[in-house]
Amino acid sequence: MRFSRPLSQAGHLTVALRDLDPAGNSLERLKRMLQESTGVISAYVSSSTEVVYIIYDPLLTSPEALRQIIQKAEVQTEEWPRRFY
């Protein structure tokens, strides 16, 4: 997705994951689902740190919408972040 405004205006979300599939199937599914979602500029899923880093356009999506995508991917998260930047 192209982001036409300064990247400083993008939303950033970091979510800790847990109980990951050892084969990595759930992480690949999560990454694909996020990258195909409207408003997601970038999604990086780290299996070594068990964290997903998402940069998104806050005019097109929200942290709650991203949370729903993560749930649909059947990936468990630690406590959901209370602050977003």
From TrEMBL:
- Kindly list any coiled-coil regions of this protein: none
Cited InterPro entries: HMA_dom, HMA_dom_sf
Q: Which Gene3D superfamilies match?
A: 3.30.70.100
GO molecular function per UniProt: metal ion binding
HMA domain location is: 11-78
Q: Which named protein is this?
A: HMA domain-containing protein
